[in-house]
Amino acid sequence: MSSSMNNEIAVLGVGMHPWGKWGRNFVEYGVKAARDALEDSGVRWQDVGFVSGAATMRCGYPGYVAGATFAQALGWQGAEVNTSYAACASGSQALAAARAKILSGACDVALVVGADTTPKGFLAPQKGERPDDPDWVRFRLGITNPTYFALYARRRMALYGDTQDDFAQVKVKNAEHGFRNENARYRKKFSAEEVSASNMVADPLRLMDICATSDGGAALVVSSLEFARKIGRADAVKVAAVSTVTPTYASSVIEMPDIATDSAAVVAAHSFRAALPVKAYEEAGIGPADVDVAEVYDLSTALELDWMEDLQLCERGQAAQLVRAGDTRVGGRLPINPSGGLACFGEAVPAQAIAQVCELTWQLRGDAGARQVAGARVGITANQGLFGHGSSVILKR
Amino acid sequence: MSEETNAAAGKKHRQPALEGWFTLDNEKPHLIGNQCADCGTFYFPRARNFCKNPACNGDHFEDVQLSRTGKVWSFTNAAYQPPAPYVAADPFVPFTIAAVELEKEKMIVLGQVVAGVNPSDLEAGMDMELVLDTLFEDEAAEHITWKWKPL
Ligand SMILES: [Zn+2]
């Protein structure tokens, strides 16, 4: 797809159900978020032509057909439905489906919704002896999700001289941001001393360096630019790019749940994370220098630094220096995760990528209140999940 | 540890925790991978039906023993007990984990590090070798796996 305004769609409305460990049915969170997004958009539910749901794999059959589940809960009104599952990128794929439908002319307005209810404790694989399943194998060998985050963090320490205090500063910064966000689950400021006093989970990462899992819901009402103009919303924030590219063989980094990387003996190794924004920048026809604010997938504090470099917001190895200089705080030169990020939300998989778009929409409208990034006109999101799923979305004024 | 000393100590039967993933040579064990007969790409664990190189339609693979030494790419530990199917000793004993880069295969392989080696003993670039060691024990057997050990 070439870069052109013809690829853009408008974000008419956004809504969220606060993140937490509420323990209620995921449909409640999705409906609350959807109703808020509809109200924010000024569009009647009956005028939505396409409902694009992000699936959850933890809530039974209604979760597998989330688009229809939300449509039914809001009251069947004849819209077409779709459900996307792409791990952490599910919300972006649901947005991509809505965009395709709108750009093809098949509908004017679409509702994108994702919500999740998460179980308590560690995410563990299915039961039974399954040595053919890489996820079973790695857990059998004692390799959990934090293992991978810690390996990346230690690698940064070895290559770039990052320190555990740099990682703690990311948590301190995100906690300050999330303190001012009523949708965040954790709204408490922390000092670097408190972070470094929390229990070690996977050296060098401590409990407060690693994100939790949460319940939550997020929704968007999106439309064609023509429809936005027609209802007097020509100034709406626009989706300028949705990248959901897959990796290119061979992997350069060991990815969850694998026990080994691909072999780069015959073909060159490629970084998946770094590839995701490349397509987004191409599609939007802008570059990293145009970005004012970013929402990135900080599964760990150290991973936020990797993302800053993968998004080309600084040179490889320089991210910690930006943190030390205060550049990534709200009020700094290039705020990262003004929402508070996963550090303050915890991960609600099918809702998370949509929540990133909600935050950037508020930021670009100037509606982010105490956490507002002054004058933000271009924002980018990034996330990565299992099995070659990831996404990067660009929004602009 | 040899079979003779096991027997002398009245120890349990030793069996691989993952059948066919490594040779059962106590002195110089190797991980068992395979290699695409068409393009030469290495696989660990072994490829079954398809070569994953996008430029190759190969479906024939030959078993190969992977290099049994490499350099530390990164490392960490498990300070908390992992969930099942990990089988923990009671009480749980934290263990170190290394990602080791094999030069010939240009591949990074994860594994536990032998007991007694802490993250503070490791650094990127260190030489490591593959050894066999206990993953867990149950009533029936001692289940063994590969582990990395500083050279
Ligand atoms: Zn091949």
Polypeptide structure, described:
The complex is a heterodimer of chains A (397) and B (151). Chain A is α/β, with parallel strands linked by helices. Chain A folds into two domains: 5-121 and 215-238, 3-Layer(aba) Sandwich (Peroxisomal Thiolase, Chain A, domain 1); 134-211 and 240-396, 3-Layer(aba) Sandwich (Peroxisomal Thiolase, Chain A, domain 1), CATH 3.40.47.10. In chain A, 36% of the residues lie in helices and 17% in strands. Chain A is built from 14 helices and eleven strands. The two termini of chain A are 21 Å apart. In chain B, 4% of the residues lie in helices and 41% in strands. Chain B has one helix spanning 3-8, and strands spanning 13-16, 32-36, 42-43, 61-65, 69-78, 95-102, 107-113, 127-137, 141-150. Chain B has a five-stranded mixed barrel. The radius of gyration of chain B is 17 Å and the shape is globular. Chains A and B meet through helix 5, helix 6 and strand 5 of A and strand 3, strand 5, strand 6 and strand 7 of B. Bound molecules: zinc ion. The site of zinc ion (ZN) has 8 residues of chain B, from loops.
Order of helical and strand elements of chain B? HEEEEEEEEE
* CATH architecture grouping of the largest domain in chain A: 3-Layer(aba) Sandwich
- If you compute it from the alpha carbons, what radius of gyration of chain A comes out, rounded to the nearest whole angstrom? 20 Å
Net shape of chain A: globular
Distance between the termini of chain B: 18 Å
Query: How much of the sequence of chain B is in beta strands?
Result: 35-45%
Q: Compute the number of helices of chain A.
A: 14
Bound molecules: zinc ion
Count up the domains of chain A.
Answer: 2
